[in-house]
Specification:
The protein is of the alpha/beta class. The longest helix is centred in the middle third of the chain and has 25 residues. 43% of the residues are buried. Bound molecules: arginine (ARG).
């Protein structure tokens, strides 16, 4: 709290700095300012500080209260309880600060103090297979983090580490060789979904022959060898399967409105050429050792139920490379070649041990400095029965079906709110609302927790949903439109006015936008932004109830309230955009 606050600092930050200046010996201590119902903010940090300085917390608090430079910032400061400070800000400081924010395109959100190169890996679906809800979570969380980090001025590299390699391709390629028409099609509408159903059929048919015909199995096995050796026909068929899958992935990304493109796809296969040298290097340096013919890395703290150490297998006994080798090559490339100083893996919690072993191996090999790689695990999506989300017949839920269903639900809400809308506009709005609801339900849950997939709750107009926030945004936009159409004073900050309680509450909440994004970036937790936006929408609702805008008593109050409305609308829209959720002008 020693940094000199810039003009775009929040009132909150300026207050922290003023408190710090009143207590020079407390350099670096956090005053722990929190919103309070006794005052605007309460500082609880003096308790810990008094302990450290071996002083009396109430005395310390009294000294700060007496010496702090109120600078037009603080209206009232008093000691309470065992050594808390209750602080009330001046209305003027609040409105002036917000006016400064409003003058900035970025709403005064500061850039990261030391931006770097941040590689964010997310989505990672598997070729020739349906994406499942786990991939949905990864895609939605990763995309939000990429947007937020980019907004903060980090150089963001997005990576989609698709599963496009492995022995299963031998089976698919061999089947295609023997049934050349299997993937033929005419293209056209719904190409992504059609591609997936063709791939699904290919997979099923190939599997059936593979399981029932020993000779086919042998032919398939030889095709794996061909593929790995780069034999042109095998390679071409493999490419066809990959391309077909990308059609499907892109259709899902498009539907979801995420940023991923083909340029971000660097799948497992991309690292093939590195694997032989990589494993030799690990063996020569002694990081990996031979065990039963395989090349392995061992860890004292990774053991099976029998107490035996469970290794990370770099190269199998038959000479083949698997998932682990690819991830080692990927991390070496990301840090060593791409120069990433932060690498985030948005992958479900069940792969935690895999990443622990991969990171530790890369660290031992000297490819990965401490603190660079982070596995950001997430919890499971559950059905209403509390078990992992599956269809009634126990299959993985098709993502497209799920999004269709959400949009259908949303169409009901839109029809209720705006019954006279032309059909195409209603459809567009239902899409924004339905897809947004699915994303928001995911992002508003703290990342590591499981959640229940319940469309009725997700698309509800009340409660902690994106629809509620989108609706608040549309409502405030409608007031601004009405103001523009009438002969009302233009929105303008009036710091000289005394604020009503609901105006102060709204203003204090607006003040926290930049700090919230900072917290999201520090902990990689988008749910803090979701909670912030829900809080803002709620404050706005109270403000409407208590403070007439267009019919306020005098011109200055109208202008000031319109100013608060406008800043709230922009903050809601910016926040939703960072979550990857549309903010329609009307709902
Ligand atoms: N394809 C994997 C799966 O479906 C996810 C990829 C995870 N990323 C990685 N670098 N291993 O489980």
């Amino acid at each position: 709290m020693t940094a000199v606050p810039s003009l775009s600092s929040s009132v909150h930050q300026r207050l922290s700095a003023a408190l710090a200046a009143a207590l020079p010996e407390a350099a670096g201590a956090d005053p722990l300012l929190r919103r309070s119902d006794r005052a605007d903010l309460q500082a609880n940090g003096l308790l810990a500080l008094a302990k450290r300085l071996k002083g009396n917390p109430r005395d310390l608090a009294a000294r700060v209260a007496a010496e702090v430079d109120t600078e037009g910032l603080i209206r009232d400061i008093e000691v309470s309880g065992p050594g808390f400070l209750n602080i009330t800000l001046t209305d003027e400081a609040l409105v002036r600060t917000l006016a400064g924010r409003a003058a900035d395109e970025r709403l005064g959100v500061p850039f990261a103090a030391a931006p770097g190169t941040m590689l964010i890996e997310y989505s990672g679906p598997n070729v020739a297979k349906e994406m499942h809800v786990g991939h949905l979570r990864s895609t939605v969380i990763g995309d939000t983090l990429a947007r937020i980090m980019d907004f903060r001025g980090e150089k963001v590299i997005r990576r989609n580490h698709i599963g496009d390699w492995g022995t299963q391709f031998g089976m698919l390629i061999q089947y295609l060789t023997e049934h050349p028409g299997e993937l033929d099609h005419e293209g056209g509408e719904g190409a992504g979904e059609a591609a997936m159903s063709r791939l699904g059929r290919l997979y099923r048919d190939a599997r059936a022959v593979f399981d029932g015909d020993a000779e086919f199995k042998e032919r398939a096995r030889r095709r794996v060898v061909d593929l790995q050796a780069g034999e042109p026909e095998a390679r071409a068929l493999w490419q066809r399967i990959v391309d077909e899958s990308k059609l499907y992935f892109n259709a899902v990304y498009d539907r979801l409105g995420v940023l991923l493109t083909d340029e971000d796809v660097v799948g497992e296969s991309a690292y093939n050429a590195d694997l032989a040298a990589l494993s030799d290097e690990l063996e020569e340096s002694g990081v990996a050792v031979r065990s039963d013919g395989a090349l392995c890395v061992f860890f004292d703290d990774v053991r099976g139920p029998d107490g035996e150490r469970v290794p990370l297998i770099v190269r199998k006994a038959d000479g083949g490379f698997g998932y682990a080798a690819t991830d080692l090559a990927a991390i070496r490339n990301r840090v060593g070649v791409l120069g990433a100083d932060t690498v985030l893996y948005i992958v479900d919690a069940r792969q935690a041990l895999h990443f622990k072993m991969v990171f530790e191996t890369a660290r031992r090999a000297g490819w990965l400095p401490d603190g660079v790689a982070h596995h950001l695990p997430f919890g499971t999506v559950l059905g209403k029965d509390g078990k992992p989300f599956k269809t009634r017949s126990g299959e993985t839920v098709r993502l497209m079906d799920l999004l269709d269903e959400a949009v259908e639900h949303a169409a009901g809400v839109v029809a209720e709110k705006a019954p006279d809308l032309p059909a195409d506009e209603a459809a567009a709005r239902a899409r924004d609302v339905g897809v947004g609801a699915v994303k928001y339900a995911d992002l508003s849950t703290s990342r590591t927790r499981d959640y229940v997939f319940d469309l009725d709750r997700m698309v509800s107009l009340t409660g902690d949903t994106s629809v509620y926030i989108q609706y608040a945004h549309a409502r405030v936009r409608s007031i601004l439109r009405r103001a523009a159409a009438q002969d009302t004073p233009a929105a303008a900050a009036h710091p000289e006015l005394a604020l009503a309680p609901a105006e102060r509450a709204l203003a204090l909440h607006l003040d926290e936008f930049g700090d919230t994004l900072e917290a999201v970036a520090a902990t990689y937790e988008p749910h803090k932004l979701a909670a912030y936006l829900y809080g803002l929408a709620s404050q706005l609702t109270t403000f409407y109830d208590q403070c007439p805008v267009l019919s306020a008593d005098d011109a200055a109050t109208v202008a000031n309230r319109l100013f608060l409305c406008e800043l709230t609308a922009r903050t809601l829209a910016q926040g939703l955009a960072l979550l990857g959720i549309e903010a329609p002008e009307r709902l």
